[in-house]
Design brief:
- This protein has 157 residues and is of the alpha+beta class.
- The chain has a single domain, classed as Pnp Oxidase, Chain A.
- Helices cover 18% and strands 41% of the residues.
- It contains 4 helices and 9 strands, in the order H-E-E-E-E-H-E-H-E-E-E-E-H.
- The strands form 2 sheets. Strands 2-1-5-8-9-4-3 form a 7-stranded antiparallel sheet.
- Bound molecules: flavin mononucleotide.
- Flavin mononucleotide binds next to strand 2, strand 4, helix 2 and helix 3.
Length: 157
């Protein structure tokens, strides 16, 4: 299906931050960059992440039922590229990467500005993506910094 250029431009007006979605399944950790992350409920605290069905992270989150959201700032663009431009199917993206674990065991990057540790409570198939709804079991702020806003031109420059 081809989307007409003007529709594509209009869709790009929706503002997103940039996050690293990490998970752990059968003893292995992996993470990917994601912009399609949103809050969904105050009580309980729920968030959604839209993960492409072909991502390695997709099968890992589906199987493990856990993920963490690592929030990035402008200083973390290299992290966004590291986790967003290659797949964990072929490489260990966590080799030489510092991280902690909290409630679920999903990696929390030491360089992120804030983190949310979630268990999947529901999922919805949405075209070529799956929306995972996660309940935040824990979360914290590591440092004060504005969240990185996704801008295609600046990100890939
Ligand atoms: C800035 C940026 C934002 C991205 N946002 C998403 C997203 O919201 N959902 C998604 O499925 N993929 C997104 N991606 C693509 C994945 O990060 C990329 O396909 C990654 O290699 C998947 O890794 P995995 O196969 O190890 O899970 C984004 C990539 C970048 C660079």
């Amino acid at each position: 299906m081809t989307i007409k250029p003007e529709l594509s431009l209009a869709l790009r007006r929706i503002i997103h931050g940039v996050y690293i979605i990490s998970t752990k399944n059968e003893g292995k950790v992996n993470a990917m960059t994601a912009a399609w992350v949103a809050r969904a409920s105050f009580e309980p605290p729920l968030i959604t992440v839209a993960i492409g069905n072909t991502r390695h992270s997709h099968e890992m989150i589906k199987s493990s039922g856990i993920f963490a959201v690592n929030v990035l700032s402008v200083e973390n663009i290299m992290l966004g590229k590291h986790f967003g431009l290659k797949t964990g199917k072929k490489t260990d993206k966590f080799a030489d990467m510092d991280y902690d674990v909290k409630a679920t065991g999903s990696p929390i990057l030491k360089d992120c500005t804030a983190w949310l540790d979630c268990k999947v409570v529901s999922s919805i198939e949405a075209g070529d993506h799956t929306i995972f709804i996660g309940e935040c079991l824990d979360g914290g702020v590591m440092r004060e910094a504005d969240t990185l806003i996704y801008d295609k031109e600046k990100f890939y420059r």
